[in-house]
Structures are given as structure tokens and as C-alpha cells.
Amino acid sequence: MESVKPRLVGIRLHPIKALDPVQVKEARIGPGGGLEFDRAWALYSADGQWVNGKRTAAVHLIRAAYAPDLSSVTLSLPGDRGGIPTKTFDFPGGSADAAQWFSAYFEQPITVRHSPEGFPDDTVANGPTIISTASLDAVAAWFPGLTSSDMRLRFRTTLELDGVPAFWEDQLFGADPNTAVRFRIGDVNFEGSNPCARCPVPPRNPHTGAEFTGFQKRFTELRRATLPPWSPQERFDHYYRLATNTRVASSEAGKSLRVGDLLVI
């Protein structure tokens, strides 16, 4: 394993939580430890809860396309579903206008909140999530008809490494939950935290919401069966886990990650 050269090969932001990603070649660490503009908008219903794929499969029908500099987002639906027109909004400043579009689609009052710190699922290990290309390839091979690109959309990680074997990123967290694994990508210092627990979203088609029957059960069985010797088994209370969650100190804010950067433990 000493001969591997982990290299950052992909950076994907999800500027609106639960919606489409955008691939970039460079991204800065934001004030909250995540990537700048990642999960910068979040949708809320009147009860104060997130509107996301965990709550409603309807979000999967929404397409979000971003300007190259992320200054705007164009929201659309297949076939202008429900008579709701395709519309472009300023990003991230146009959240109030976008809320009207989302309210019309979901047929209920939706608030769009903006946070420079982002809206991470894991509020403790709220840095970028890390996965390897080989892991995506391996998981895709478990499901006939699905590709590595499908898995990128389903698991929604932010940083992707190549130059390593499948599930190599399990080495970025330790057996003791109180002891972080420290590593660096380019100029940015990270602490690896834990294997990321997955939710009801990966079994769904990212564009239609259609369920892949038995996805979670099959994934869990095969993840357990193929767990590498370097993976700390103590951290797997269940095996529906993929990618590594991280923490990034506030001192790293403003530093940039670039495709091609090497990871050094």
C-alpha cells in the first residue's frame, strides 16, 4: 500500500442541497470547513424541515444548471411539468425569488435559505466527503445496469481520488472515534472522521426518483463481504457506509483545492 499516490481527480459541488452537482477544477475551503458554494442553499418547508431526497422523491425531477462562475442557476423540469417554466436566478443572492419557483413546484410554501458555511448533513464532521474512483467502480459492478457515473450522482460526494484501490479512503479514519487521522490534500489540512452513513437517496434514480429494488440490502451485504483489511471494522456498526467524512479547521478557510493535488498522510 505504500506505493500508492492518491491524487485528487474530481471536485463536485452541490450548490443547492439535494439538487444537481457541478464539476469544478478548483474550489476553496469555506468559513464552515466545507467547500465554498457547496450546499450553500437549502430548501425548507413551513415546518422548518429540509426539503430533500430523504423526505420526497419529487426533488429528483428538478434540474439545476449553473453558470460557469456559479453566479446563476437555471431551474427546470422535464416537459415544463405542471406548467412551471424554466427560470434563471442569481446565485447565491436570488434565494427569495427561487423560493417562489420551488413553492409553485412543491405546491406548498418553501423557504430557500443561504449560508456561506453551507448546510452539511454531518454537523460535526462537516468537511468535504472523500471517495475513490475505484470505490465507485467497485460499487457500480455490484448493480447490473448502473455505472460509476450513476454512483457519483447517487452518493453525492465532493472529492474523488484516483491512484488507489477500492475503499482505500477507509484508511482516512481510525479505529478510535476520538482519534482523527490527519492528512493533507494540496495545501489543505484535513482530519478524517468516520465512514459516511448513507440514507434513502442512493437507491433512487437521481433523475426520476425510481427505486432500485433491494439496493440497500445488496450494498450492505457486499460492502461487508469486501471490506478491506485496512478498514477499521470497529467503525462499522452497519455496512451501509461509503466515503469518508472529514473535519477541516477554520484556519484552512480560503485555501484552495485543485484537481491534480496529491493526498499525503
Please explain how this structure is put together.
By secondary structure, this protein is of the alpha+beta class. It has 2 domains: 7-34 and 120-264, Beta Barrel (M1 Pyruvate Kinase, Domain 3), CATH 2.40.33; 41-114, no CATH class. The protein is 15% helix and 26% strand. The chain has 4 helices and 15 strands. The strands form 5 sheets. The protein has a 4-stranded mixed sheet with strand order 2-1-10-9. Strands 13-12-11-15 form a 4-stranded antiparallel sheet, with no helix packed on it. Strands 5-6-7 form a 3-stranded antiparallel sheet, with helices on one face. α2 (133-141) packs across α3. The two termini are 12 Å apart.
Gyration radius, rounded: 18 Å
Beta content comes to 25-35%
| Main pleated sheet | 4 strands, mixed
Poorly predicted regions are none
Secondary-structure map:
Layout: E1 7-13, E2 22-24, E3 26-28, E4 41-44, E5 63-66, E6 72-76, E7 87-90, H1 95-106, E8 111-114, E9 130-132, H2 133-141, H3 148-155, E10 159-162, E11 181-185, E12 188-197, H4 215-225, E13 241-247, E14 256-258, E15 263-264
Parallel strand pairs: 9-10
Antiparallel strand pairs: 1-2, 1-10, 3-14, 4-8, 5-6, 6-7, 11-12, 11-15, 12-13
Helix pairs in contact: 2-3
Could you name the key traits of this structure?
265 residues; alpha+beta; M1 Pyruvate Kinase, Domain 3; 2 domains; four-stranded mixed β-sheet; four-stranded antiparallel β-sheet; 15% helix; 26% strand; globular
